[in-house]
Amino acid sequence: MAKKPQQHRARKRFGQNFLQDEGIIRRIVGRIAPRADHHMVEIGPGMGALTEIILESAERLDVIELDRDLIPGLKVQFFNFPGFEIHQADALKFDFASLMDDGKPLRVVGNLPYNISTPLIFHLLDHKGVIQDMHFMLQKEVVERLAATPGTNDWGRLGIMAQYLCDVEALFIVPPEAFDPMPKVDSAIVRLTPYQELPHPAKSVECLDSLVRKAFAQRRKTLRNNLKGMLDVSDLESLGIDPGRRPETLSLQEVVALSDCLADKLNKYD
To answer: What is the fold, at CATH topology level, of the domain defined by 12-194?
Structure first.
């Protein structure tokens, strides 16, 4: 049994909002479904609300916490769990592959600060080879962008790059009153499961990322305008893509086809 957590005032500079609704906490952990043989990793454990419930099932849990003032309390709270280890570090710079000392893929969870959620997700996607799955609580708007479908306003770089690498599933909404202090927006839980085999592999991920950035730089403009200098009208038409379309109408498969066309052109000029 973990000791009662210490009191700690949430810090705005760390984007801290501590989850306190036990029903929501157990619902989240229920969807994660940790087991004794899983290697769990928690980003931003805060005061240990999720941590405590995860440790009811998992024997190995590494937590990454930036706020050094929270660490003594976490050490006291979970001192009797031998598989619990704290890393005082910035998750944006953390080498997640360094945790793979037992050869088990990582199951990553976290209540991510709103101000770093997007760059942190991209950082984790760079480590997808060592990750089994990820469950995050994020601002609802970010989850909507991650799980967006083509033809919607939310479809853009974040959703395309996440869905290129992972199966993305929005699970459920978490209201502001589940936190202390209460945020001004709804949150939501999302599951990202990296693909063992990519459904639409690109010839060059660098070309894919460059093309997506350029295509969505000005969403109201057409592909003809946004991709000028990168792909010609004839390139788009050769793929059966109308140059007058807007970027949010492209499917993931079409985006990959465009990036492959760009990769071929660049290779030809090398």
So the answer is: Rossmann fold (3.40.50)
